[in-house]
């Protein structure tokens, strides 16, 4: 059994030796797995790089971190969101029991990430890859501060390598730092009419937000004339309404504050940017309340209208009720179910596979109370289907290791509730009441629904049948609900003593072999449901 951080720490302090992680060694293979670096890395501890290293210098800030030579801006955007909430940050990066002081320093550090429905403590040593005595990946702007570089190393260990962090959605990092659930919105002409209201409410509830501009492969991190960068992950760090004084009188303006994880002068140059004349329209008092700074730090303001016109995607990570932290104001009720698709058993594929779709795992949810501010007597239900552990498979399967996933929702009538599971015939003759907006080869797909009170069956699936993988189904609602796995229990109901008369053995063997072959097909193999048919036929006589 792996040692805990505290066990490692005490052992190192007693022996006087600095920790060296046997499970994530300081070798180039743990950086890049598909290619060799242009020059070898030199692995150094912070104590070998500076005289007085510090884990966190005067509190973590979104301004602390800068991106290095790895394409993990999505990870940095998640870090920047995390640092805005000290309680959340301290859960991921404990500061009370580790540091570089004589009492704590042992060459080991630990970080806590949410993975597959549970919090995982990841321990690493503090040897970091460098070139010319400089950190080459994520680092703090202060040369003496090392929490961001060590956090990235712990996350890389969890995912299998530093290279495994190349390319991703900000939602992955935000969820792995909070255990929350992310909802994505298309912007531009597809943006919901009330999206600014949604963003304002999300910011007030301490939700984490990220945004990005779509790009083709040859446009990744291409710089636009307006200062923005394509194919690059940004953090939304503020949402606010301000009163601007114009010639025609007071005017309310909706603003969004955004940060580029590069942390440099690459900022928005349009209206309400750092050098914009629009700031003269605000009173000194309002500018002071906004804590305005106009440094080349990667952070800038822009109007909401410009925001939805220039960015194409927004991700909002809602915190789950188990985040018991002083700065997290959670209002969602959440249920989590863990399951898996198994070849030959529960990997039924999507509705294009009518003979096997019913074999997928099924989850029943009952919605009782309508939303408080709803006008049409309906309930908000946010459904998330998340694949578990796929990034770790990149060494074996390549960069795109995700399965193509989606889900369907069926309204259950009173008679449907009597069955432990919905069978093949049900799905052949009933259409879904709602479904995911697409099937996608991403880690997670999340959609929001407005449903009438009642009971529903949610069926998650891969697009193709017979694809195996672990997954989570998470259900968020404004009101309490009841949900469970919709399945038959495996149990022995009674003692069975078949009575066989003399001379009957051969006839029975021939009869049931013929039935078995009809059910099993040419491969003479049966899955769990086909086996059930064979056994029912055998014991019904």
Tell me about this structure.
This protein has helices spanning 5-15, 46-49, 73-82, 86-92, 147-159, 170-178, 195-204, 284-289, 304-310, 394-397, 424-429, 504-520, 528-539, and strands at residues 42-44, 65-66, 108-115, 118-125, 128-131, 134-135, 139-140, 181-186, 208-212, 233-246, 249-259, 299-303, 313-318, 333-341, 363-367, 379-387, 405-412, 434-435, 444-451, 454-462, 469-477, 481-485. The chain has 541 residues and is α+β, with helices and mostly antiparallel strands. The chain folds into four domains: 5-177, no CATH class; 181-318, Cathepsin B, Chain A (Alpha-Beta Complex), CATH 3.90.70.10; 333-485, Jelly Rolls; 502-540, no CATH class. The strands form six sheets. The chain has a six-stranded antiparallel beta sheet with strand order 8-13-9-10-11-12. The longest helix is centred in the last third of the chain and has 17 residues, at 504-520. It is globular and about 90 Å long. 36% of the residues are buried. Residues 489-496 have low confidence and may be disordered. The active site is at 73, 232, 260.
Fraction of residues in H or I helices: 10-25%
Structural class: alpha+beta
| Spatial sequence of strands, sheet with the most strands | 8-13-9-10-11-12
Radius of gyration: 27 Å
Low-pLDDT runs: 489-496
Short description:
The active site is at residues 73, 232, 260. The protein is an alpha+beta fold and 541 residues long.
Features:
single chain; 541 residues; alpha+beta; Cathepsin B, Chain A; Jelly Rolls; 6-stranded antiparallel beta sheet; 5-stranded antiparallel beta sheet; 21% helix
């Amino acid at each position: 059994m792996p040692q805990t951080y505290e066990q490692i720490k005490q052992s190192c302090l007693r022996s006087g030796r600095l920790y060296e992680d046997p499970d994530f060694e300081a070798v180039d293979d743990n950086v890049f797995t598909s290619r060799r670096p242009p020059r070898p890395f030199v692995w150094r501890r912070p104590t070998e790089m500076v005289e007085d290293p510090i884990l966190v210098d005067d509190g973590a800030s979104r301004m602390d971190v800068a991106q290095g030579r790895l394409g993990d801006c999505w990870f940095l955007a998640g870090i920047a969101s995390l640092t805005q909430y000290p309680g959340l940050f301290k859960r991921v990066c404990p500061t009370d029991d580790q540091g570089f002081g004589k009492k704590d320093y042992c060459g080991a550090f630990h970080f806590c990430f949410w993975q597959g429905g549970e919090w995982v403590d990841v321990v690493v040593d503090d040897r970091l890859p460098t070139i010319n005595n400089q950190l080459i990946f994520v680092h703090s702007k202060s040369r003496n501060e090392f929490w961001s570089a060590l956090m990235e190393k712990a996350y890389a260990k969890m995912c299998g390598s530093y290279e495994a962090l190349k390319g991703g959605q900000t939602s992955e990092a935000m969820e792995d730092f909070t255990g929350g659930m992310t909802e994505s919105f298309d912007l531009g002409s597809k943006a919901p009419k009330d999206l600014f209201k949604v963003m304002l409410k999300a910011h007030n509830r301490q939700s984490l937000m990220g945004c990005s501009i779509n790009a083709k492969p040859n446009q990744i991190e291409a710089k636009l004339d307006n200062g923005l960068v394509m194919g690059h992950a940004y953090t939304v760090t503020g949402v606010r309404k301000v009163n601007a004084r114009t010639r025609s009188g007071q005017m309310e303006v909706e603003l969004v504050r955004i940060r580029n994880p590069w942390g440099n002068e690459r900022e928005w140059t349009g209206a309400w940017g750092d050098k914009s004349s629009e700031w003269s329209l605000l009173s000194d008092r309002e500018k002071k309340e906004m804590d305005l700074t106009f440094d080349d730090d990667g952070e800038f303001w822009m109007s909401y209208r410009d925001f939805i016109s220039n960015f194409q995607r927004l991700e909002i990570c809602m915190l789950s009720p188990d985040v018991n932290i002083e700065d997290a104001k959670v209002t969602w009720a959440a249920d989590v179910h863990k399951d898996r698709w198994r070849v030959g058993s529960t990997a039924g594929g999507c509705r294009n596979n009518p003979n096997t779709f019913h074999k997928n795992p099924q989850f029943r949810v009952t919605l009782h109370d309508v939303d408080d501010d709803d006008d049409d007597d309906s309930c908000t239900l946010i459904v998330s289907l998340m694949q578990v552990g796929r990034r770790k498979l990149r060494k074996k399967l390549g960069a795109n290791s995700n399965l193509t996933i989606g889900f369907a929702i069926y309204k259950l009538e009173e008679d449907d509730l009597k069955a432990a599971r919905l069978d093949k015939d049900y799905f052949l003759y009933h259409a879904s009441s709602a479904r995911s907006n697409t099937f996608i080869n991403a880690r997670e797909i999340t959609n929001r629904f407005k449903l009438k009170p009642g009971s529903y069956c949610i069926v998650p699936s891969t697009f193709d049948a017979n694809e195996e993988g672990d997954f989570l189904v998470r259900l968020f609602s404004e009101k309490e609900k009841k949900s469970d796995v919709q399945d038959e229990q495996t149990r022995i109901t009674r003692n069975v003593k078949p009575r066989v008369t003399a001379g009957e053995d051969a006839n029975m063997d021939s009869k049931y072999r013929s039935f078995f072959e009809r059910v099993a097909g040419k491969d003479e193999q049966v899955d769990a449901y086909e086996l059930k048919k064979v056994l029912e036929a055998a014991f019904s006589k």
